[in-house]
Amino acid sequence: MSPKQVVFKKMSKDKSVGVYMGRRDFVDRVDSVDPVDGVLLVDPEQLKGKKAYATLSCVFRYGRDDTDVLGISFRREIYMATRQIYPPLQDKEQGILTKVQDKLLRKLGDNAYPFFFEFPDNLPCSVGIQPSPKDAGKYCAVEFEVKAFCAESQNAKVRKRSTVCLTIRKVQYAPEKLGPAPCVQTTRDFLMSDKPLHMEANLEKQTYYHGEPINLSVKIRNNSNKNVKNIIISVEQIANVVLYSNDSYNETVAAEDSGDSIDAGAKLDKVYTLLPLMANNRKKHGIALDGKLKHEDTNLASSSIIKEGVLKEVMGIMVSYRIVVKLIVGGIMGTSEVGVELPFQLMHPKPDTVKESELEDEVVFEEFKRTYLKGMAEDEDEGNVSPAEN
Questions:
Q1: pLDDT value at position 285?
Q2: Is residue 86 within 8 Å of 52, Cβ to Cβ?
Q3: Which pLDDT belongs to residue 313?
Q4: How far apart are CA 344 and CA 321, in angstroms?
Q5: What is the pLDDT of residue 62?
Q6: C-beta of residue 299 within 8 angstroms of C-beta of residue 282
Q7: Dihedrals φ, ψ of 98, to 5°?
Q8: pLDDT for the residue 84
Q9: Taking every annotated instance into account, which residue ranges of this chain make up the domain Arrestin C-terminal-like (predicted)?
Q10: Domain 5-173+351-389 belongs to what topology?
Q11: Could you report how far apart the first and last alpha carbons of the chain are, in Å?
Q12: What is the 3-state secondary structure (H, E, C) of the chain?
């Protein structure tokens, strides 16, 4: 049986405009990004001669719109594009429609009009920093919004009741062409020891999927006269807020305090398994998460991959991962550390795509609602703010 075509919809409070979209996630393939397409439904009687517009924007937020950061509300639009949808500037028949748009136009009738946006190739993906429980409502995030509103003109003041705002996601999947498996080694000489300690660490591959165990092979040749008292393995997430202050969050998202020891002159070959999961980090402040929609759970943020030549400063929040292997080495003067780092990627696998031709002609409508990340209160007006009020 063919899957049904799910369409997400949302209406303004005064029913003057409504937005219908066939998806909420739009994929960044580094060299290209899925276009944003949908249909705007208008009620000419409610419009009362006004025009209807649609806007695609990329917004960097810190704090809520109704709160201050050091006395200043921080909301920066990284990108915005606005189109007049009604009255249409060209005949419906002249435009190229997707199959979903074609189905919606036939189903919704003469007052439905298509819209279409393309992402520029220098925008970040959807990501947010998890707030601490005491900071509920304050958050740092890169979000994408599709907004529709009616007004006398594009720059005129807009009533909240005549505005509808939908949060969408710009996401990245693991690249099809994977890089080499990370491998690192180090040799450490010690005072009053004729021979060194040698450590080598290897991963099976460069890219791991969310929820997939990570196997790390560690080989140690302790030819020194020192004793290794413990081996600590950790997965660290580094989130750099590069847009406004270059803040950096470095959080451990998985760890193993092995308790393994290696006597002088001995060796160790062992595989350690780590599993970085959002479920084990829900109470940590500073964890970067993938953008969240509706009521489904989210996950640790995926690694950021940027197109060559794009400035990192415009990427909002850059996320990377590394595994840190730390040896605690005993000695006469106390303990010392020997460590190595292995960078890797944590991402989603590319999902199995369903061709539009395989979808049923029947359209199932689902209300489009927005929910903030865990620890964030929901805004009753869901960001429906007049451009003139920002």
A1: 84
A2: yes
A3: 66
A4: 6
A5: 73
A6: no
A7: -75, 165
A8: 95
A9: 193-351
A10: Immunoglobulin-like (2.60.40)
A11: 48
A12: CCCCEEEEEEECCCCCEEEEECCCEEEECCCCECCEEEEEEECHHHHCCCEEEEEEEEEEEECCCCCCECCECEEEEEEEEEEEEECCCCCHHHCCCCHHHHHHHHHHCCCEEEEEECCCCCCCCCEEECCCHHHCCCCEEEEEEEEEEEECCCCCCCCHHHEEEEEEEEECECCCCCCCCCEEEEEECCCCCCCCEEEEEEECCCEEECCCCEEEEEEEEECCCCCEEEEEEEEEEEEEECCCCCEEEEEEEEEEECCCCECCCCEEEEEEEECCCHHHCCCCCCCEEECCCCCCCCCECCCCCCCCCCCHHHHCEEEEEEEEEEEEECCCCCCEEEEEEEEEEEEECCCCCCCHHHCCCCEEEEECCCCCCCCCCCCCCCCCCCHHHC
Q: Which residues contact 350 (CB under 8 A, 6 or more apart)?
A: 173, 174, 176
> Do the domains at 5-173+351-389 and 183-347 have one common CATH topology?
yes
102 backbone dihedrals φ, ψ, rounded to 5°: -60, -45
Over the chain (390 residues), the average pLDDT of each successive run of 10 is 78 94 87 90 92 93 56 73 91 78 92 93 86 63 93 89 92 85 96 93 96 96 95 95 77 96 96 94 87 69 82 79 96 87 92 55 66 37 37
Tokens of 237: 């997430």
Identify the pLDDT of residue 380: 41
pLDDT at 383 (0 to 100): 37
Distances (CA, A) of 337 to 59, 230, 237, 253, 331: 43, 10, 21, 21, 11
pLDDT for position 368: 66
Please give the single-letter amino acid code of residue 279.
Answer: A
Cross-strand partners of 340: 325
What pLDDT is recorded for position 137?
A: 54
List the chain domain ranges: 5-173+351-389, 183-347
CB-based burial, 62-98: b 16+ in 10 Å, e otherwise: bbbeeeeeeeeeeeeebeeebbebbeeeeeeeeeebb
Q: How far is CA 66 from the centre of its chain?
A: 24
pLDDT for 110 equals 92
Output the pLDDT for position 122.
Answer: 81
